[in-house]
Specification:
By secondary structure, the chain is of the alpha+beta class. It folds into two domains: 2-156, Gcn5-related N-acetyltransferase (GNAT) (Aminopeptidase, 3-Layer(aba) Sandwich), CATH 3.40.630; 162-322, Gcn5-related N-acetyltransferase (GNAT) (Aminopeptidase), CATH 3.40.630. The chain has helices spanning 12-22, 35-61, 111-125, 140-148, 187-197, 200-203, 210-213, 219-230, 277-289, 306-314, and strands at 2-5, 70-76, 79-88, 94-102, 130-136, 152-162, 177-181, 232-241, 246-256, 263-269, 297-302, 318-329.
């Protein structure tokens, strides 16, 4: 009965299997990993395996990539009973715990607590300062667990979905605004927008600093290969207020280029320009519809973006899951 570090690429298949198996909730089917999500997960696992030699070389020369998908398995009774995964955001000391899961056969044995404590100790050793995670709003046992080790609920996130891409015209933004391409390495535009619009109460747990948005230059080479193997197409756009030159919104589309899986959308919008929300949603749907094979479209919206949430619902999206985002600030070594 002990944790062991995840070792990639050897553990890539087990990682995917544990996520697909552990996130099953018969009493709340909407919370469970769906069949199409398993298809996307399988493509991700295949991508890790095929690209790992290149990723490993990149890690030698790029320290910030060395903590890609770090975490532990918990092993009990000669079986894998749980998993926890975390990774830093960009080059910052801000980490995100992306997965905490216990196999259904091993629940209520305290395994999740052991894994959470293990990953927090790991992040601290790596110099991490802030840690955040998302927990399903109705999952009270998990919420209480995270609360007991020091996490605090500081905002919410909504996962929305719509069955397939509806026909959407090219977006027409009001006079005085324009849609621009956003380069994948343009961290400054992303940073400036989020520094300005993310509420102070959220920034207390998710510090908005340049390192969070700066990405290793080698990603310009690796990311297109990852997208090709996974069968995805990524599009980033920014919305500019022409008179001021200020970026007031951003939209990101990760669209499937082959059958199966899900399209994924994300956006940010300056609340001072909230009237742009319907056009922004139209832009997202227009972009994802290009070449869509009828997959479900999934979109994440932060709770501090109510105008985007309202526009998404007006466009036909339904809320599938509400998450509580929780965070803590780690005590530093020697304190």
């Amino acid at each position: 009965m002990a944790e062991r570090l995840i070792s990639l690429p050897k553990d890539a298949g087990l990682l995917g299997e544990m996520i697909a198996t552990s996130f099953q909730y018969p009493e709340n089917p909407a919370w469970s990993v769906q069949t199409d999500e398993k298809e996307g997960l399988a493509d991700t696992v295949a991508g890790i395996r095929r690209l790992w030699p290149l990723i490993r070389i990149a890690q030698v020369f790029t320290p910030s990539l060395r903590n890609l998908l770090r975490g532990y398995f918990w092993e009990e009774e000669n079986r894998t009973a749980g998993i926890v995964i975390a990774q830093p955001r960009g080059k910052s000391r801000n980490w995100m715990v992306t997965t905490v899961a216990t196999h259904p056969d091993f629940r209520r044995r305290g395994i999740a607590r052991k894994l959470v404590n293990a990953i927090l100790a790991f992040v601290r050793r790596e110099g991490g300062r802030q840690v955040a995670l998302d927990v399903i709003a109705g999952n009270l046992p998990a919420y209480k667990l995270y609360e007991s080790v020091g996490f605090r609920h500081f905002t919410s996130m909504f996962e929305l979905e719509i069955p397939a891409a509806p026909a959407a015209p090219a977006p027409q933004f009001p006079e005085g605004y324009r849609l621009l391409p956003l380069d994948m390495m343009d961290w400054q535009t992303r940073y400036d927008l989020e520094k300005r619009i993310i509420p102070a109460a959220v920034q207390e747990f998710e510090t908005v600093d340049p390192a969070r948005y700066q990405q290793p230059a080698i990603l310009r080479l690796i990311l297109p290969l990852i997208n090709r193997i996974q069968g995805t197409r990524m599009v980033d756009r920014s919305i500019q207020h022409i008179a001021s030159g200020q970026t007031v919104g951003r939209m990101t589309v990760t669209a499937r280029t082959k059958p199966g899986g899900r399209h994924n959308l994300a956006a940010r919008l300056d609340p001072a320009h909230a009237h742009l929300a319907p056009a922004l949603l139209t832009g997202l749907l227009h972009e994802v519809a290009q070449g869509s094979a009828g997959q479900v479209i999934q979109m994440t919206v932060m709770g501090w973006q109510p105008e985007l949430l309202a526009a998404a619902h007006a466009a036909g999206f339904k809320t599938r899951i509400e998450f509580h985002r929780m965070g803590l600030t780690l005590p530093q070594a020697g304190k």
